[in-house]
Each structure stands twice: as C-alpha cells, then as structure tokens.
Amino acid sequence: MDGYTNYKLAKILVPVQDYRPYPTIVEREKWSEINRGIVSKWIHEAEHFMGMSWTDLSASLFMEYSINGSRSSYQDAHFHRRTALGTLVIAECLEDGGRFLNDIINGIWAICEESFWGIPAHNQQPHSDHLPLPDITNPIIDLFAGETAGLMAWTYYLLKPRLDQVSDVICNRIRYEVKRRIIEPFLTRNDFQWMGFESSKVNNWNPWCNSNCLTTVLLMEQDVEQRVQGVERVLRSLDTFLRSYHSDGGCDEGALYWGQAGGALLECLELLYGASNGSINVYDHPLVQEIGRFLYRSLISENYYINFADCPAVVKIPANIAYRYGKRIDDDRLVALGAYAHQLCNGDNSDQFENRISMLRELPALFNFDEIENIEGNQPIVRDVWFDGIEVMTARQETTSTLGFYVAAKGGTNDESHNHNDVGQFIVYFDGCPLIVDVGVETYTSKTFSSKRYDIWTMQSEYHNLPTVNGFQQQQGELYRANHVSHSVTDECAKLTMDIASAYPDESGIMTWVRGIALHRGIEPYVEISDVFELESPTTNLTFSLMTCEKPDIFQPGVISLSTNQAINCVHLSYNNELFDVHIEGILLHDDRLKSSWGSQIYRSVFTAKQPLLRSTSILSLRERR
C-alpha cells in the first residue's frame, strides 16, 4: 500500500464530520430494517445486563497473573464488562427507547476508571520485564486496550446525540480517555513490536491492533493532520504485516488466528475503503486474495480445520468476515464457506471472538444478516493444496466430498508464530472425522508465552506424531527446521518429503531422517508414512509417537485398529512388528480448551525399537478396514 503520502491522504479521506460508516442511533430507517428475530435476540441479551453492578477490577485481581500465572479471573471480569457494554449499545440502537442508557453510562464510566484497558498478561513495555500493575503514565497498546478503545469509539459515534442529552461530559470523557490511552501513543511511538516499525517479526497482533487504532482515529480524531498521520501509520504498519506473509497466503498461526490475522486485515481494508470513498482499494492484490483463500484451503470438514501450532482442531470461524472477504475478492468458495459457517451456527451470525464484543464484527453482521441468511452455503472441497511458503500440504482422497482419507503435513521451522516443536508433523482424518491428530494447546497461562513454553507437554515433539532419538526431542528456534522439502501431486498420489534431522539437536545422533507423508488414491486408497533414517551409532533408545482421539486396538502383531469419534475400528494401521514394540497410553484431559476438541481423554501409541538401529526404514500404512 505504498504511495499514500500524507498529502494524498488529506485529499481522499472523508472528513470526520462526514464519515458515516454505519447509521447512528438517530438515523432510524436502517435500524428499523434489521431482521426482527435478531432484534429480539439482542434486546433479550441486553436485558440480562440491566442493573449490572460493574464490580471493581481490583489491584489484587490484576496481580493474580504475576503471582500464580492465572489469566482467567481478571480476564473473565474484563471481557464481561465489554460484552455487557457492547450488547447494551447495540440494543439501545435497535430500540431507541432510552431504557438501556443508564446502564451504558455506568459501563462507560466504569471502563474509563480502569487503570489499564488491556489484560495483565500483556502489561509489559517493549524491551522490559512484565509489570505486576499498570503504569498509567505510560500507556500500553495491546490487543485489548485497542479493542476497548474501538468499542468506546463506536459507542461515542453511535450514541453521542443521546448521551449528550444526558450530559456532554460523558462523550468528552470518552474522547479524553481514547486520546491519551491510544491515539497519542499510536501517533508518537514506534516501539510496540506489533507495529513492525522496529522489527519485521509480526503476527495477528498487527492487523488486530491496527484495526482498532484506525477505528479510533477515523471516528474520533478531530485534528485533520493527526487523522491523516494516523491513517498513514496504519498503512505503513500493515505493509509490514503483508511483507511477513509468503505469496501463498498461508497463515502459520492456523484458522483460529486467521480470524484476527486475515480477518482483521479485511476490517482494516474495509475501514480504509470506506473512509476514502473507495480510493484505497487493494482487493485485487494477489497476496490479499491468497490470504483470504487460506481459510477454505485449511478446512477439513464442518468445524474441523488444520490445527498446527496453537490452533484448536474445532474452530468456529467468523462467518460474516469470511463471507464479506469472499465478496470483496470475488471468490465464490469463500462466500459459500462464510454462508456455510453461518448455517452451522443455526443462523446465529454473531462473530464474537471468545467472550467480547467487537463492533467491527457486529455491525456488518447486523446489517447484512438477511443477505447471508439467503445465500446457499457449502463446504468448499479442495482436493490438493500446497502452501510452499509455510510448507504445509493437504490432500483428500475424494474430489467432491469429505469421505475417505484426508492428510495434512508440515515442514517449516520451529520458530513460527504460536510455534510447537513439530517439524514433520502430520494428521489424518477419515470420512471427515479425526483419526491421527494434533493435540493443540491448553488454556493460556503465564507459562505459555514465556521461556518455559516448551515445558508444556502439548508443545513438545514427543506429543506430536514424531520420533524421539536417544532421549532428545526437537528444539525451538529458526535453525531447527526441515531441509530438502519436496512436494508432488498427481491424480494418483500427493506426497511431501523432507529431512527433519535439523529439527533435533546434534546430541540426538541423527545424521539424516527423511520423512515422507503420502496419500495414494485409487481403487484401494491408503496413507503411507515412511521414515528413512541414519544415526551416528546404533541405539535402541528410539521411539516415535502417534496421537489419536480414540483408543487404538492392537488387532494382531503388526496391525493396529484405529477409530474416529464417529466410527469404530474403521482403519487398520500396519507397522513393522519385527523392528518395533508398541504400547498405548491414555492421557486424561483436564483443560477445558483441549476437552472442547477431544473430550476427556486422548491416546498416545509409542513405538519403541526392539533392537539397536543404525540405519533403517520404518513404514506405517493406513487402509480402510474391509
């Protein structure tokens, strides 16, 4: 998005007094046209928040994160406040009767009184240690300070005429808090890593924070020069985000985080498009289009998506975002996926991300509800995908359905965003259901994004479908990567091969470990995992793991029966019984985030060398049980 100088932006930006992205509360025609069922839903939800006490967020509650690593207590209260305020604001706009105004004012005031609009886990200045309490003299723009500012800016924009009838102090307070907490640091600081001004290593924080900073600048900044400056900084920052992507549009953070990476990028582009009367329009840019297409290219079936890194297996994608992105880039598959996701939610077109309200999601979802409701949705079936930048392969047995085998595998490095030590990882689904799985990630704690991240079992290679040699697992860092990566695809076979030896430390004694993951299509389709390896010296201390969502059954020596969560003993896995013993262990799951994908237990099959191995070939073969 180069070329938009301050001079040019000053000419094309709509003045703040004329900027009308959505109707305000006094513009009743559009609000009265919203689907009556959705109106009833919002009113009913808002009534639950009437008379809310807006309990204080205490310093001791904030400090729990520093003391015991728990994020939940403060965050739950933080997000509850914002969910309440956003719901009340929408309900008041829909009804315009004044009965929610007192609660809205209480919510505005309570949030304005908070010392920090972000969360304790993000209370850290660049290049400094984590702080147990916020420093109000040095505001931090994290994801949720930005999102709170966006919510306050939309509240100001939508309700100002009604709030001013009560007292103009209310909107003046909003302006004061948004200005000092967000707009001023955004215009004057370059050191927040998510900006990309001092480091090119950015992730979903970049478009997510930018979308809310841009919202506050466009809706609330009265000074023309500062408004232009804010837009120009957003454009430069988004360029850093786009440069961080490979041309394949692959999101190494997974489908969940696409919602705040590609999805938030769309929100930025929509704001820029509307605020410039269409002059800022980059929807024909190939990378912007590829980023959108990642979503359906990572779809397995229904709510199952490829879940490498911190992505869960079951993802509720932002349906309205996918739908609108598809329309903007003229991609019927993405449009259909958005409509399909909407229908999976039984017509609930709320695009809430976890437990908070984003007006950038809710407003368009309200105003185009009937449109998406009347679109025929479906699962876009893509037989073969190769993301050559992030080195991820997907392959299906069938070309038009989710039946049969589905395989996804990855190379890459152990320095990806939300990284797990998982170079060479693969997953297998059968008839659209999980068979051999990637476990995912537990609920975030202080440990998750600390130096102790890889003490967490779900991050470790031995709890992925990978080998462990001489007791050594894969290590984290950019140097630990796949080499000699090769992908090939024909109608008969899709295959990914790589040498994963460099993902392990030298002490492992691995000289080469060439892994091949192949889906063979044909009359009798099968999946084959081949490992051809050579070590520095013979060892029996060699294992590899397979993670499954259902308990495997040792059918006979050399053959294991595998089940999905829908079918029992549907696939036979063959292995070399002369080389390996196998034992199966159950892993009880206590974490709610893992249980939401897998239930209360998963299983780990550990294959152990029976004899000292120096060089050998291991082949696992999966075939439908007949």
Overview of this protein structure:
With 626 residues, the chain is of the alpha+beta class. The chain has three domains: 1-231, no CATH class; 245-380, no CATH class; 384-624, Beta-galactosidase, Chain A, domain 5 (Distorted Sandwich). It has helices at residues 6-12, 28-32, 36-47, 59-68, 72-95, 101-112, 143-166, 168-188, 205-220, 224-243, 255-258, 262-275, 286-297, 319-328, 332-344, 359-367, 369-373, 592-598; strands at residues 299-301, 304-305, 384-387, 392-396, 405-410, 413-414, 426-430, 433-436, 467-469, 477-481, 483-489, 493-499, 510-520, 526-539, 542-548, 553-556, 559-562, 571-574, 580-588, 601-609, 613-624. The strands form five sheets. An eight-stranded antiparallel beta sheet has the order 11-12-13-14-21-18-17-16, with no helix packed on it. Helix 6 (101-112) packs parallel to helix 8 and helix 7 (143-166) runs parallel beside helix 9 (205-220). Mean pLDDT is 95; it is low at 349-355. This is Heparinase II/III-family protein. Residues 401-546 form the Heparinase II/III-like C-terminal domain. Pfam families: Hepar_II_III_C.
